[in-house]
Structures are given as structure tokens and as C-alpha cells.
Amino acid sequence: MPKYLARVTYTPEGLQGLIEEGGVARRDAITAAIESVGGTVENLLYAFGEDDLYIIFNAPDRASAAAVGLHVSAAGAVAWSTTVLLTPEEIDEAVKKSVNYRPPGA
Q1: Cα–Cα distance measured from residue 3 to residue 98, given in angstroms and rounded to the nearest whole number
Q2: 43-53 pLDDT, tens per residue?
Q3: What is each CA distance from 98 to 40, 86, 106, in whole angstroms?
Q4: CA 28 to each of CA 18, 41, 43: distance values in angstroms, whole numbers, following the listed order
Q5: Cross-strand pairs, 80
Q6: What integer pLDDT is reported at residue 8 of this predicted model?
Q7: CB contact set of 25 (below 8 Å; sequence gap of 6+)
Q8: What pLDDT sits at residue 106?
């Protein structure tokens, strides 16, 4: 199943909800959202810095991963950004592919 990294930044309203509900309750809500599209959460960690939360999750396809981010972001409590993750094996497969590319000015 494809892997994704979600970087989440709370809005002021989202932070207020986090303070009221706690981190475990929010983890459970996010996990339920990902599971509702057939995915699983590998890891969910809060962080200091530009992003407040990092989630590594699996989803059956890109549309399912996008659906979670769209619905969570639409609620207005967070900004959600999804990055597709690749395994070392997938990188090995990618570097073996022939690509016909001409750089600018060549």
C-alpha cells in the first residue's frame, strides 16, 4: 500500500480544540479518518517548529490519501499537506527507467 507523509499545522481554532480534547483524542480522530478510506496510520507525532504534527500513513491509492487531506483541511482546524513517500526499492526501479530529456540550452 502506498505511503504518505502528512504535515499538519493547526489554526488558532484547531489549537484551542487540541487544548480542550488532548493529543490522544485528536490522534484517534485522525486515525479514524484515515481508516475510513481503507488506510492505516504507521506513526503520528506532534512536533515543535513550522509544522505541529507529522503523520506517516498508508492509503490504498492517491485519491484516498487526497480525500483525507481535503476533508480534514475543509473543516478549518488545520492546514494539511500530503507528500508521497517512496521506498528504496521504488527508487531503484525509478533510476533504472530510461528518460528522454533535453536540458534547457542543450
Answers
A1: 25
A2: 999 999 999 99
A3: 34, 19, 18
A4: 12, 10, 12
A5: 8
A6: 98
A7: none
A8: 85
Low-confidence ranges of the chain (pLDDT < 70): none
Distance (Å, whole) CA 69 – CA 67: 5
Integer CA distances (angstroms), 8 to 33, 48, 72, 90, 91, in order: 14, 12, 10, 26, 26
CB-based contact 12:77 (threshold 8 Å) = no
pTM: 0.89
State the residue for C-alpha cell 508521497: 84
104 vs 106: CA distance, rounded Å: 6
- What cell was used for 11? 489554526
Q: Which amino acid does the sequence have at 46?
A: Y
All three cell numbers of 53: 504534527
